[in-house]
Amino acid sequence: MQRRVRIETTRLWRLGVAAALLGLLAQPALGGDDRSLLQFEAKRLAGPSESLSRYRGDVLLIVNTASRCGNTPQYEGLQSLYERYRERGFQVLGFPSNDFGRQEPGTDAEIGAFCRANYGVDFPMFSKVSVRGEAAHPVYQYLTSLPAPLGGPVEWNFQKYLVDREGRVVARFAPRTQPDAPELVGALERLLDASAGAGPSQPPAASGG
Q1: Domain span holding position 122
Q2: CATH no. for residue 114?
Q3: Do 33 and 62 touch, CB atoms closer than 8 A?
Q4: Percent of the chain residues topping a pLDDT of 70
Q5: Of 53, 61, 48, 59, nearest to 127 (Cα)?
Q6: Which of 56, 64, 179, 190 has the smallest set of CB atoms within 10 Å of its CB?
Q7: pTM of the predicted model, to two decimals?
Q8: What is the average per-residue pLDDT within 115-131?
Q9: Which of 197, 184, 198, 194 is nearest to 82 (CA)?
Q10: What distance lies between CA 199 and its chain's CA centroid?
Q11: Cα angle: 177, vertex 68, 55; to 5 degrees
Q12: pLDDT tens readout for residues 5-43
């Protein structure tokens, strides 16, 4: 009797293990978007929310911006970088933030007007967000949660993340790193050259809004 119980118990245990394995195998595999920046959505500065998956195929530079910061003149360099490389499939994505020194107090409309009037910005700009703490936008929750040296807290306005055409973050640059710094431009050109056959995913987004 005891032997029969042991056999039945063993059989049920094996069936349970098999069912668990089948359940794991049935789970969908994680695709590119689930492991990249492209899984998120963000609201445009002067428009609706959009999926960052629309930028698949582009090399991206993600920047948290501010209008009243010592780094604000970097807008000019970011716009120049965008104009220089956008035909090769490059986009700058700006995320205004008031997190550091309250240096971005304006509304979305005011931010957009400032960027256009002072720096001629027409690369994609997104609605003002938080980039640190529990209130951080999901894009920045993702960026800051990456392993070192890519992740970690955002240090100040105009920190930059370089992202490949599949949405993988490949480099981080400090806030004071200028957009035309050799290390940034060199890393950008290597990404563009490595994926030159891909080309831009779609025409550049209109205006800085």
Answers
A1: 33-194
A2: 3.40.30.10
A3: no
A4: 76
A5: 48
A6: 190
A7: 0.80
A8: 98
A9: 184
A10: 19
A11: 55
A12: 454 544 544 544 343 333 322 333 333 334 689 999 999
